[in-house]
Amino acid sequence: MTPKRLPRPTRALPAAALVLALAGAAPAARADVTVGTLHQDLPADGIRLVVFHGQVGELQVTGTSGDSVRLEVVLLCERERDENCREAAETVDLEARQRGDRLVLEVEDWPRIKGGSLSIRARLEVPRYRAVEVDMGVAEVTVSGVEADVEVDVGVGEVTVEGPEAAFGSVNLDAGVGETELEIGGRTVEGNGFVGGHLSWRDGPGRAHVEVDAGVGEIRVTLH
What we know:
Elements: E1 4-5, E2 10-12, E3 18-21, E4 31-43, E5 49-53, E6 56-64, E7 68-77, H1 83-89, E8 93-99, E9 102-108, E10 118-127, E11 131-144, E12 150-163, E13 168-184, E14 187-190, E15 197-201, E16 208-223
């Protein structure tokens, strides 16, 4: 079956660059310049799984009571006058493809530029009962409010997942080099491993599953 190609994203390129500090856990000393924004707003009818593929940056996934999938991707350069980064950002696109009950959102045409100064700050909103799958290279990923399967894979970075304990039946966490931690109702379960961390929990009352894999990094899951 040929994948269904969805409408092109809207793109906004600011006339004057706006310097923004990365929110949350980004290094306090780093301030990035917004050089472009991509949007997708799609109906979730018939969608069971929402997949996001990205490269470098931050992604916040939020489960909502709505009936649509909304994604905003902000393109960032480390320095205001980095012309190589600005030119590279112009080639980046956001592709949406639907195949059956699977919706894939992908940041495409990611450039190779010296110093790796281009990154994204993305926010993805999905109906809370849709499953989510994230695959990124170097990233900080946060997932909250989703009450279906959550799968996250990062090469290097930090992953945080929060959700209701009643929705989940199992959690499986793997960090090649790093730490894993699961908190359930105020009780903390730490992963085992000499260098990396592995944690498996299968005592939940729900049907959903959390699976997170980080090559290097930290993984924290909180069920409350």
